[in-house]
Backbone:
């Protein structure tokens, strides 16, 4: 095989992989302690809802080692950290709205001193009535936002005419991000007044904005750096900011470096999670399983403040169709306001919750109608006009679901295995198996259209080595590896000559969050733009060094650290010779790059537009075995096929697909967020909150990327991969439903709320047996 | 007064001024600046803090053992060799590091040092043969990014490879030394006596001291509740408590670790072995002990139900002498035992199992690995040649304030033919035995139904073989007959 001409599309290792294995890879809390470092502990509300009548910090200030205690009164700017709607105080000043809400921060020489200080702060609270569940919020009309709506056609009339019509309720649970690295920011005072913040955040520009807001400063006084994160998954998009603001405020007040780090329990109790949803639906089908009409009302538990909940609810509505054409449809959404932590972005951003509803409906329809579920799903896919319009009036072009299904049904041997499952079920009393295939269609772009922009800054030194800055953050997803490949490809230099720099707001300003699966799409284009700009500047120098006429400059090839003309591939000049000459010729060797996604828009008032640049697709076949005695299950085999377009780095993309699937399976099965009747999180550590463990992953796990599937208008034909595969895990719920139904009579609908814990599954089995 | 002294990454260190209740994790990060070892949960549930320590194995030879640095107090590594992730790369990357990077086994990388240390142990394990052992080796390391497939690939590549390298060469010289330690200062005590005489005299002086061995439960008071126990006496230095003796009655010493128990029971006590498979994680099993698990007297402790069902007896000792208590009577209430002041559990005596005795153990939890049970059970039934039940001991955990036998269900079995009808009647009788509670691990109705179902499943399983073992790839805690045959 020929030497690859660039790292692009090669099975690269993770850019930090070896450093991860040695412990050299540094996270914020690992930073060498700056002289005079102070640490902090937050004073939080012990009640879910109360009037805050007073905070007395005098005794705390007497505690040995305590340096400062800061409350709302100490905020020089605005006491608000709400990212979109300004409804979230940094420190509660007259009312506390959830158990765990920040009231003050104690800053001191050690954690012991800070904890003693926290214990000495006196808080005077008068309890107020609480709203702790979606049902209570509905009953008490406690909403942050209502009546988000998408509609097309006449759903009421179509439902009335539908030959098969049924109603139901779908419940999906919350999910803690459980990034292995908890929230952490280190604030270091610099000359100015100015601050340098090292923060574990997906959104350094927003941390910068919010900190400036809290301090009453200009953003130019702040530099926010993100070395890397130990996982983010959406949990560090907005929710790093409050704790970063405390570190910043304390650093300004004390003039010393301050670190705010949450331990696991604090992180789980105080920060938001995936939104639990409760949906009521009314659906119509033809007797042969054609989806005719849908009305649904979604209620999301937003917690005490808005955070990103509006956009999350919108994305849930945008994904109520998944890959299915619904001729007549009305979906409405509401944000319940509860006295719980403010729920936030989590991989999929509402999409999984919307999709879970329609997939549940498809399973129930198949159960009721006695139809093969894979066929029922398939016959409802988007197709040619007029069956190509979504509930938000965007045309679905190039729907790849039919291709994905036919390839995956064949490669997974679905039909043969389904027959085997049925025969297993016929011969086993206490154990049943289930198998199912489900599709994913996921819209790519921030639905707030202006966010779809990115920047890069590429620096070439005279010795030919390169520093690459871009606006995206690295949280493990391999963004830096991909950006490195894009940059190396355009400059024609080996990957080891490029260093991806710490993400910093002084290198690339005004960035969007690394979120919405957009990291590679947006930053990739910006990096390409910057690198191409530099390469074009180098062409005339290269041509001159090759002794070629000036008009051949456009033909010069940059490859593997050399430049040459295609007509004379053996006559080459080293890249560093070109850069050295460029420097001596007074050519600028740094360039910025910029990109914005073209032609996307959405009108919230009418619920119409083209919010997505394109759709990413996928399909999954899962086979499970369920115990009828305990409700436990095991994934026997999983086959995934993901459409990531023409993958930039297939080894990285495959890791994203697998990891997302298992995380989705966790959300749908073993991960259960439980608050008690006081609003206290019972599941606040891995002792009680169980994410998937090593032995839960299927040993027979077959993951493939759809081949020959480039996408138009994206970086090198690739597609987003971060979120879409999470929803492939819905196949496990469909498979569980199949297994549960096998305990009962055919033709009955299974009722199985999510998460499908052993308890939920066992009671679903008991219900199936009783029918 | 001895000084804390242990070997860290090849060098002996002495720490006269570090508080003995400092965890190894905090010491490594805060005192030594070794930040490769991470805090992910401070409770032994995530494994990001895993390091290796050299311990003697059942073969009497030293072995690397992965442990949770977050739960180890410094005197617990007194005289021992500790290896952290920083020491693995010496010029070349260690095979575990190479395998992880090559498999893309890291994404965010935060769990990676801990996983590398679990793989480090696995690299030098000569006993790592069966596929379930790989799951067992790594179930104490959570990864939120990869979905584990690439980590499994890396593990498969290095597990049991036993390379001849500097680490294997260093092992024979790295045997653990004396754990003797005594530190008393400002009302704080940490003592590790190495003889009973010493123990009794420490206790005479400090009758209010608390016992600790592995610390996997007690350390949580320090790492989670931030309370420092003023007086601790470690029993780890008492050689006799590490006894494992085979016989018509097996003697299991109270300081025997769960991983040692796992090896010992593989052939001798299959039901115990089966329960131990899903006992915490490899890291916890290396530190957690029989005595610790029993003396915390938690109603959801894993060992109690199975040992009660086997008719175990607790051996207690004080300066005044020894006494024996039936294990089921050892638990006197929620987290209460029959132990008196200055008395300790020496071990448990477990009658050897007759080949025809039907016995098994089950643990039902939200997650299969490293979870706490909603319901657990140790079930034992003897049936005579006329197929009539002559003895039934059905012990359940998670159903009451203590591990408790289901006496109504037992009565419904004894004297009746061992049949599905009898078992069904007994299963129904279990509702009279317990009034379980509802919590985040399971509701009362779920617990009641599962307890009854475990008995039904036990009947099914033991119709194939009297002491069924876990089968590879089993779907649930209760096996299908097919799985039992396969296993």
Residues:
């Amino acid at each position: 095989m020929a030497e690859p001409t660039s790292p692009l599309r090669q099975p690269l290792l993770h850019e930090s992989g070896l450093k991860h294995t040695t412990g050299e890879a540094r996270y914020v809390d690992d930073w060498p302690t700056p002289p005079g470092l102070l640490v902090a502990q937050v004073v939080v509300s012990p009640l879910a809802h109360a009037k805050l009548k007073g905070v007395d910090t005098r005794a705390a200030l007497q505690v040995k080692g305590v340096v400062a205690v800061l409350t709302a009164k100490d905020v020089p700017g605005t006491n608000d950290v709400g990212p979109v709607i300004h409804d979230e105080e940094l420190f509660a000043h007259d009312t506390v709205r959830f158990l765990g809400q920040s009231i003050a921060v104690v800053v001191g020489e050690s954690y012991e001193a800070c904890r003693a200080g926290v214990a000495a702060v006196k808080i005077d609270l008068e309890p107020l009535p609480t709203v702790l569940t979606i049902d209570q919020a509905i009953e008490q009309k406690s909403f942050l936002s209502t009546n988000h709506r998408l509609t097309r056609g006449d759903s009421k009339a179509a439902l009335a005419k539908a030959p098969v019509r049924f109603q139901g309720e779908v419940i999906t649970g919350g999910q803690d991000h459980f990034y292995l690295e908890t929230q952490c920011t280190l604030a270091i005072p610099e000359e100015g007044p100015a601050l340098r913040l090292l923060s574990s955040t997906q959104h350094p520009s927003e941390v910068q904005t919010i900190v400036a807001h809290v301090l009453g400063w200009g953003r130019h006084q702040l530099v926010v750096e993100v070395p890397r994160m130990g996982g983010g998954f959406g949990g560090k998009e907005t929710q790093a900011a409050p704790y970063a603001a405390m570190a910043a405020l304390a650093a300004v007040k004390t003039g010393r470096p301050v670190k705010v780090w949450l331990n696991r329990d604090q992180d789980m109790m105080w920060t938001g999670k995936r939104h639990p949803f409760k949906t009521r639906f009314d659906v119509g089908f033809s007797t042969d399983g054609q989806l005719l009409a849908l009305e649904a009302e979604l209620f999301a538990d937003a917690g005490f403040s808005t955070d990103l909940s509006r956009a999350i609810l919108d994305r849930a509505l945008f994904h109520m169709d998944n890959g299915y054409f619904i001729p007549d449809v009305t979906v409405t959404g509401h944000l319940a306001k509860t006295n719980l932590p403010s729920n936030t972005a989590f991989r999929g951003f509402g999409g999984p919750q919307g999709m879970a509803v329609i997939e549940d409906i498809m399973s129930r329809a198949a159960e009721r109608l006695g139809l093969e579920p894979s066929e029922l799903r398939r016959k409802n896919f988007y197709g040619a006009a007029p069956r190509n319009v979504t509930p938000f009036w965007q045309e679905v072009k190039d729907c790849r679901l039919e291709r994905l299904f036919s390839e995956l049904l064949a490669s997974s041997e679905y039909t043969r295995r389904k027959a085997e499952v049925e025969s297993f079920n016929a011969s086993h009393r206490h154990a049943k198996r289930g198998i199912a295939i489900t599709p994913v269609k996921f819209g790519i772009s921030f639905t707030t259209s202006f966010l779809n922009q990115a920047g890069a800054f590429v620096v070439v030194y005279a010795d030919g080595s390169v520093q690459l800055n871009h606006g995206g953050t690295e949280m493990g997803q391999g963004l830096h590896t991909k950006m490195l490949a894009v940059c190396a490809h355009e400059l024609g230099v080996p990957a080891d000559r490029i260093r991806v720099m710490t993400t910093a707001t002084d290198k690339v300003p005004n960035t969007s969050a690394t979120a919405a699966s957009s990291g590679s799409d947006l930053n990739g284009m910006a990096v390409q733009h910057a690198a191409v700009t530099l390469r074009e500047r180098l062409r005339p120098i290269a041509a001159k060094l090759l002794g070629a006429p000036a008009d051949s400059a456009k033909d010069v090839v940059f490859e593997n650290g050399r430049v040459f003309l295609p007509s004379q591939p053996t006559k080459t000049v080293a890249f560093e010779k070109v850069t050295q000459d460029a420097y001596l010729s007074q050519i600028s060797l740094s360039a910025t790059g910029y990109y914005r996604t073209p032609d996307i828009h959405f009108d919230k008032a009418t619920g119409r537009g083209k919010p997505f640049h394109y759709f990413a697709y996928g399909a999954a076949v899962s086979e499970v075995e369920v115990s009828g005695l305990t409700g436990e299950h095991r994934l026997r085999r999983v086959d995934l096929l993901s459409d990531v377009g023409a993958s930039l780095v297939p080894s990285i993309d495959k890791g994203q697909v697998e990891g997302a699937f298992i995380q989705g399976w966790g959300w749908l099965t073993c991960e259960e967020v439980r608050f008690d009747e006081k609003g206290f999180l019972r599941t606040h550590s891995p002792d009680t909150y169980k994410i998937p463990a090593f032995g839960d992953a299927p040993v027979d796990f077959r993951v493939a990327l759809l081949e020959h599937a480039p996408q138009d208008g994206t970086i090198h034909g690739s597609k987003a991969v971060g979120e879409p595969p999470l929803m492939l895990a819905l196949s496990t719920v469909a498979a569980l439903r199949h297994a549960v139904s096998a305990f009962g009579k055919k033709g009955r609908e299974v009722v199985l709320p999510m998460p499908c814990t052993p308890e939920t599954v066992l009671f679903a089995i008991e219900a199936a047996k009783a029918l | 007064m001895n000084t804390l002294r242990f070997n860290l990454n090849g060098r002996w260190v002495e720490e006269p001024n570090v508080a003995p209740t400092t965890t190894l994790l905090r010491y490594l990060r805060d005192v030594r600046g070794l930040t490769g070892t991470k805090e992910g949960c401070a409770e032994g549930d995530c494994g990001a803090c895993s390091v290796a320590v050299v311990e003697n194995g059942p073969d009497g030879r030293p072995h690397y053992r992965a442990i949770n640095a977050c739960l180890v107090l410094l005197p617990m590594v007194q005289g021992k060799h500790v290896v952290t992730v920083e020491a693995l790369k010496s010029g070349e990357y260690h095979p575990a590091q190479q395998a992880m990077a090559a498999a893309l086994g890291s994404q965010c990388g935060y769990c990676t040092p801990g996983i590398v240390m679990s793989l480090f142990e696995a690299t030098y394990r000569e006993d790592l043969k069966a596929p379930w052992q790989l799951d067992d080796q790594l179930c104490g390391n959570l990864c939120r990014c990869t979905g584990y497939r690439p980590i499994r690939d890396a593990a498969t590549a290095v597990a049991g490879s036993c390379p001849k390298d500097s680490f294997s060469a260093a092992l024979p010289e790295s045997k653990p030394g004396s754990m003797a330690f005594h530190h008393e200062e400002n009302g704080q005590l940490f003592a590790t006596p190495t003889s009973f005489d010493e123990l009794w005299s420490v206790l005479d002086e400090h009758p209010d001291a608390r016992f600790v061995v592995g610390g996997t439960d007690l350390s949580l008071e320090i790492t989670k509740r931030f309370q420092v126990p003023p007086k601790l006496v470690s029993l780890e230095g008492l050689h006799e408590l590490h006894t494992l003796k085979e016989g018509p009655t097996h003697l299991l010493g109270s300081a025997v670790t769960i991983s040692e128990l796992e090896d010992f029971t593989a052939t001798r006590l299959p039901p115990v072995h089966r329960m131990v498979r899903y006992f915490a994680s490899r890291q916890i099993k290396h530190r957690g002990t029989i005595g610790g698990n029993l003396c915390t007297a938690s109603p959801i402790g894993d060992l109690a139900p199975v040992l009660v069902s086997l008719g175990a007896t607790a051996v207690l000792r004080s300066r005044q002498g020894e006494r024996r208590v039936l294990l089921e009577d050892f638990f006197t209430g929620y987290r209460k035992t029959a132990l008196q002041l200055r008395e300790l559990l020496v071990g448990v005596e477990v009658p050897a199992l007759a080949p025809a005795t039907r016995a098994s153990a089950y643990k039902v939890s939200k997650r299969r690995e490293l979870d706490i049970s909603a319901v657990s059970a140790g079930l034992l039934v003897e049936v005579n040649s006329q197929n009539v039940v002559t003895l039934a001991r059905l012990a359940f955990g998670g159903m009451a304030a203590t591990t408790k036998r289901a006496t109504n269900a037992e009565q419904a079995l004894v004297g009746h033919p061992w049949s599905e009808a009898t078992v069904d009647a007994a299963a129904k009788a279990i509702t009279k035995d317990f009034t379980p509670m509802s919590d985040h691990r399971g509701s009362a109705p779920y617990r009641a139904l599962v307890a009854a179902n475990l008995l039904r499943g036990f009947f099914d399983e033991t119709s194939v073989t009297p002491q069924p073992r876990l089968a590879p790839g089993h779907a649930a805690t209760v096996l299908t007959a097919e799985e039992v045959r396969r296993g």
Remarks:
- The longest strand of chain B covers residues 375-383.
- Chain B has a mean pLDDT of 97.
